[in-house]
Write a structure and sequence with these properties.
- This protein is α/β, with parallel strands linked by helices.
- The protein folds into two domains: 141 residues, Aspartate Aminotransferase, domain 1 (Alpha-Beta Complex), CATH 3.90.1150; 239 residues, Aspartate Aminotransferase, domain 2, CATH 3.40.640.10.
- Helices cover 40% and strands 15% of the residues.
- It has a seven-stranded mixed beta sheet with strand order 2-8-7-6-5-3-4, sandwiched between helices. A four-stranded antiparallel beta sheet has the order 9-10-13-12.
- Helix 6 links the parallel strand 3 and strand 4.
- Helix 3 crosses helix 11 and helix 12 packs parallel to helix 14.
Length: 397
């Protein structure tokens, strides 16, 4: 047998793909179709004007089919830097922006510039599973940082985890998987901690456009030394529904981008042109549409909070952006309950065990509610209530 990379072999399977396998052999009658709340991705295509831009570029722009600059097209970097500067009310030059094949690649590039095998990166628990997977593949130790009851981590707790091999602290806000929005003061405390210890602070802001707060959610770009300490990650996948085009971004200092360019050139050479063209056009022309999308998602979050308030036995711990993090009321573990829900309630959601260290998360579930409308949320909670009443698992009293 040919060799297998042990670091890859011991990395857990992709959770969303694993959950989809639970659908094999399951039947969903017309009066109870599957409700899929397992993946945080828009199920609708981009708005029609954006699709027309993509189609025209594919037909009329020869450069749309060629390699581009490794760090991204100049026009997109310039437009994003201007947008970023307006949003955070602080200047960000284009030479601080890199365009990546999705936000996952931005995270991988950031980590590759910071750490190697045997180093440590502090990540909040529950974690975003692709972050944990990449660290495992690189043989970088993920040091779990427990969150408080509000699902927000504390800088004071992180301070106790810093050691000689620590290289970075990772935060995701609004959070995947919990939906929690981290307060600006919390982010500033983490920044000060990271800078004091010579660490990088990586802030994944994939869901920034669906934050319930108006205006910038933090002032980290204004802090002394931000170009060296702060690495911001962003995604166009959610805001413009460009998941299939894989366009993300990374904002940091030019010196780090010189290292990141090496990584990007090796794994992708350049991000796809059609996605970059779409993202640049969207930044200039879809401000009103994005505002409308944000209000719709915030409305769904409100509906999720309201619907779970009277859900027997279930407890909502946090909700925001695309997600709700809940506790189920059963004695059986979350993965067992998740499998039962597919066949007995027609619901596919991810168990908390997929976001936690081994042995943890047995009572937790993640609901990606942004993919269903308000009526779908009402249907979801009705099915969960019916599942509880029918005793499909041994309920805790």
């Amino acid at each position: 047998m040919t060799p297998t990379n042990p670091a890859l072999a011991t990395t857990f399977a992709p959770p969303v793909m694993e959950a989809r396998r639970w659908l094999a052999g399951a039947e969903f009658p017309p009066d109870r179709p599957l409700l899929n709340v397992s993946q945080a991705a828009p199920v609708e295509p981009p708005p029609e004007p954006l699709r027309r831009v993509i189609a025209e570029a594919a037909m009329m722009r020869n450069e749309a089919h060629l390699y581009g600059p490794v760090l991204g097209n100049d026009d997109l970097r310039e437009t994003l830097s201007a947008s970023w500067s307006r949003f955070y009310d602080h200047p960000v030059a284009p030479d601080r922006v890199a365009i990546t094949q999705g936000c996952n690649q931005a995270f991988c590039a950031a980590i590759a510039s910071l750490a190697g095998a045997g180093d440590e990166v502090i990540i909040p628990v529950p974690w975003y599973f692709n972050h944990k997977m990449w660290l495992d593949m690189q043989q970088i130790r993920a040091v779990p940082l427990c969150c408080g009851p509000d699902m927000v981590p504390r800088a004071g707790d992180a301070a106790a985890l810093i050691g000689p091999r620590s290289r970075a602290i990772v935060l995701v806000t609004p959070n995947n998987p919990t939906g929690a929005e981290y307060p600006a003061d919390t982010l500033r405390e983490f920044y000060e901690l990271a800078r004091a210890h010579g660490l990088a602070l990586i802030v994944d802001e994939t869901y920034r456009d669906f934050d319930s707060r108006d205006g910038p959610p933090h002032d980290l770009l204004r802090q002394h030394g931000a170009e060296e300490t702060l690495i911001q990650l962003y995604s166009f996948s959610k805001v413009f529904r460009l998941t299939g085009h894989r366009v993300g971004a990374l904002i940091t200092g030019p010196q780090r981008l010189a290292e990141i360019e090496k990584f990007l050139d090796t794994v992708a050479i350049s991000t796809g042109q059609l996605g970059q063209i779409a993202a640049e056009w969207g930044l200039r022309n879809l401000t009103g549409w994005v505002a409308s999308e944000r209000q719709e998602i915030l409305g769904r979050a409100d509906a999720m909070r309201e619907a779970t308030r009277d859900l027997p036995g279930w407890k909502l711990l946090s909700a925001g952006a695309y997600f709700a993090w809940v506790e189920h009321p059963f004695d059986q573990g979350a993965e067992v309950i998740a499998r039962h829900l597919v066949r007995e309630a027609g619901v596919l959601m991810l168990p908390g065990t997929m976001f936690m260290p081994d042995g943890e998360g047995r009572q937790a579930m993640r609901i990606a509610f942004a993919n269903i409308d308000r009526q779908g949320i009402a249907t979801l909670t009705a099915r969960l209530a019916g599942f509880s009443r029918n005793g499909a698992a041994n309920a805790r009293t």
